[in-house]
Amino acid sequence: MKYFINSTADYHRNDLNSLGWELTVCNSMEPLNSPCHQALTIPDSFGKHLYNFLNKIISFDEISSVLEIGGGLGYLMRDFLTLNPQMKAKMIDISPYLLNKQKETLRPLKADFELADILTVPLKYLSGFDLAILNENLGDMPVLIPEQDNDSYQPFADATEKLEHFNKKYNLSLGLNKDECINIGAMEIVEKLCLAGIKYIYLSEHSCEATVPGNIKPYVSFQSSGIPEMISLKGHKEFTVKFSYLQKIAEVLNYITRRGYFADFLPINFTNKVQTALRLTSPLNDEQEVIRQFFHDIYKYEYLILTKGDEK
Fold first, then answer.
1. Rounded to an integer, what is the distance from CA 202 to the centroid of its chain?
2. In sequence order, what are the residues at sequence separation of 6 or more whose Cβ sits closer than 8 angstroms to the Cβ of residue 288?
3. pTM (two decimals)
4. 3-state helix, strand and coil shares in percent for the chain, rounded to the nearest 5
5. Phi, psi of 6 (to 5 degrees)
6. Considering only CA atoms, which of 128, 116, 151, 112 is closest in space to residue 6?
7. How does the average pLDDT of the chain come out, rounded?
8. Exposure string (b/e) for 105-131, b if CB count within 10 Å is 16 or more?
9. How many CB atoms lie within 10 A of CB 293?
10. Which bin fits 17, alpha (ψ -120 to 50), beta or left (φ > 0)?
């Protein structure tokens, strides 16, 4: 089958000048007066919630160096370094705009910055980090598009070889479904980080496989197709992620995996006000709309935590 490539690299290098069009869960929780905090039992920032969750799974006492790839505005790493000043961060981003924002956010903290595409960074450069983080950005990575959807994409000559590599090495079934877009960039990054031997890896993004738990269905409803779906945004297109493929790659490379929803570490507070917002067919005001979107996202986003097998 002939494939085309969806890449957001040029957009992030040359055109991105705001994240206003892409309100991530992390950014939506940043303002102290955000309606998102009304839906949580503990109204902390995203980074603090994630750090405290990871601290129950991995030993932060052993972590001195952390790599964040595509760190957005730097809020997550600000919280990590504030909670654990012994750590030093390396921020790698393909976007000059976002890297400058990270420098502003992290100015008083221990962090270095590099403008680079992680897919071209040499493997040996990554081997010295104890923890790697890619939060809410795997959908930005290159995606292979089947031939029938080729109107706005460039042909990708190496698709067959790449798919054969992943199918053979990790016992996947890429390319069998003629309608399936393939998160080839996300798969390459997971493989790269695991081959670099990084002790702990945290990944997250919109999932094409997420399901709503039974007790939450009265409040949140969405369908997941099981194959990556396109999300149209200003100036570029992203895709939801098939986490089962990433999980299998990591496991073959001797990593223990833990997978779940953002709701695992963002504790929900079902107040009357929150339940009212969720039960409405349409929101009556901006506050209710934010709460409804927040609940949708904390079940639509999945995380994947990888722990090197010989470290546990």
1. 8
2. 35, 276, 277, 280
3. 0.94
4. 40, 20, 40
5. -100, 120
6. 151
7. 92
8. bbeebebebeeeebeebeeeebeebbb
9. 17
10. alpha
Q: Measure CA of the first residue to CA of the last residue in the chain; give whole Å.
A: 41
Give pLDDT tens digits for 257-268: 999 999 999 999
Q: Which backbone phi and psi does 302 adopt, to 5 degrees?
A: -110, 155
Look at residue 283 in the predicted model and tell me its pLDDT.
85
Residue 258 has a CB neighbour count (10 Å cut-off) of 13
For residue range 194-229, list pLDDT tens digits in order.
Answer: 999 999 999 999 999 999 998 888 888 888 999 999
| Structure tokens that stand for 148 in this block | 């029938």
The position carrying tokens 């969750």 is 53
CB neighbours of 108 closer than 8 A, spacing ≥ 6?
none
Place of tokens 């961060």: 89
% of residues, the chain, pLDDT over 90: 77
Q: Which position has the token pair 């750590």? A: 87
pLDDT single digits (tens) 170-191: 999 999 998 899 999 999 999 9
Pair 46, 298: CB distance under 8 Å: no
Name all domains of the chain by residue range, CATH numbers in brackets: 3-311 (3.40.50.150)
Q: Are 156 and 5 in contact (CB under 8 A)?
A: yes
* Structure token pair of residue 222: 């969405």
Residue appearing with tokens 């100036």: 235
Beta bridge partners of 69: 92
Alpha-carbon Rg for the chain in angstroms: 19
Would you call 10 helix, strand, or coil by DSSP? helix
Count helices and strands (H / E) in the chain: 11, 12
Contacts of 232 (CB under 8 A, 6+ apart): none
**194 with 123: CB under 8 angstroms?**
no
